[in-house]
Design brief:
This protein is of the alpha+beta class and about 350 residues long. About 25% of the residues lie in helices and about 30% in strands. It contains 9 helices and 17 strands.
């Protein structure tokens, strides 16, 4: 069966905010730098992070679960706040009295953006919107849990610069489905999300393109079905394991593709890790780790090895390129970002390969 692929990135991460980890280090970290690196590796292994039990309102880093979305989720929806039911308008009015600068945009002025990787999690939204990079200083975002028909959430075919792991994506597969989340972002939140995903209008290449999907079916319990939404599309494609995409084991859904965890996904490309070893400096830094955690450490510590390994995925036909099947009824329209895979100019040089004179390729 032919498959088709879209993906959303996991970027702009902060390793210091990891909640817990079980590292395969050969002993405890010996310095603060080692601890940060250990947390970053564990962050990559825990991707796509913990999700809430249902739809929620993200308010300055805290999730308030919706009991009902109502006709307007920012007016007559109801939340669970400190064990009590509270109408959203009342909750926001009380919040406005203590913090008058918080004036959320109306729900009908927001953009519906599909999230199926880290952006579905409260922790990732907190890293993006409760940092000094979001200068407004506050965020109020409705995030709805839903089911996307005819798509599976799968591993993408490149390594994330920050934590070295595979990000998530979605692959078209008629008759199957996966859990997704929809973030409703105002204009300033949308701008920050673009920046975190590397959408640079001046760059000839980027990790992702941004656009609209029409003709889709996303069912949101207790609310309605979306037939159109916006999305970040991966320019690298889907990771191919044994001839097909690999569905994320942690994401609920009825999938045709086998469900595979991060350890198994990374282990499936061990021959590429061996073919493109890390620099001597990275090898030394990563010597206290073993197995796939050591590979993540290498990807984090050596951008050149990471880029070589990503390129090798395509060269060795481990990639399923993005497209949609004729007759699917789904239409993709690119609106921003390059359509060529590569490092966007907006991200700092220390995240891209500064080519070393001699390669250790075997």
């Amino acid at each position: 069966m032919k498959t088709y692929f879209i993906t959303l990135s996991v970027l702009a991460l902060s390793a210091c905010q990891l909640l817990s980890s079980k590292s395969q280090m050969k002993g405890r970290p010996k310095s603060n730098e080692d601890q940060i690196l250990a947390d970053t590796i564990a962050l990559g292994m825990s991707y796509p992070y913990e999700r809430e039990s249902g739809s929620y309102l993200f308010v300055n880093g805290t999730a308030y679960l919706y009991e009902s979305t109502g006709r307007d989720p920012l007016v007559d929806g109801t939340l669970r706040v400190e064990g009590k039911s509270l109408q959203v308008s009342s909750f926001l009015n009380k919040l406005g009295k203590s913090k008058p600068e918080i004036k959320p945009a109306a729900f009908n002025k927001r953009t519906a953006v599909i999230a199926y990787g880290s952006n579905a999690s409260v922790s990732a939204l907190k890293r993006k919107f409760m940092s000094d990079k979001f200068t407004r200083g506050w965020a109020v975002i409705p995030v709805f849990k839903g089911t996307m028909k005819n798509f599976e959430v799968v591993h993408a075919a490149h390594f994330v610069p920050v934590n070295g792991s595979f990000p998530a994506g979605i692959s078209y597969n008629s008759g199957f489905e996966s859990e997704v989340w929809i973030s409703f972002l105002d204009d300033e939140e949308m701008e920050r999300m673009h920046a975190s995903e590397g959408i640079d209008r001046q760059s000839p290449e980027s990790w992702y393109a941004y656009g609209r999907l029409d003709g889709i079916k996303i069912q949101i319990p207790g609310w309605r079905e979306l037939t159109s939404a916006f999305v970040y599309v991966d320019n690298y494609g889907a990771l191919q394991i044994n001839g097909s995409p690999a569905a994320l084991a942690k994401v609920p859904g009825k999938t045709l593709s086998p469900k595979i965890g991060m350890t198994e996904a990374l282990s499936s490309v061990e021959e590429i890790f061996k073919k493109f070893p890390a620099s001597d400096a990275a090898e030394k830094k990563c010597s206290q780790w073993t197995g796939v955690e050591k590979r993540l450490c290498e990807n984090i510590s050596d951008p050149c090895a990471r880029d070589e390994r990503t390129k090798a995925l395509a060269d060795e036909k481990r990639v399923i390129e993005w497209s949609l099947p004729a007759g699917s009824g789904v239409i993709w329209t690119r609106l921003a970002g390059a359509d060529k895979a590569g490092h966007p100019r907006a991200f700092p040089d220390n995240m891209r390969c500064q080519r070393r004179p001699e390669s250790k390729q075997q």
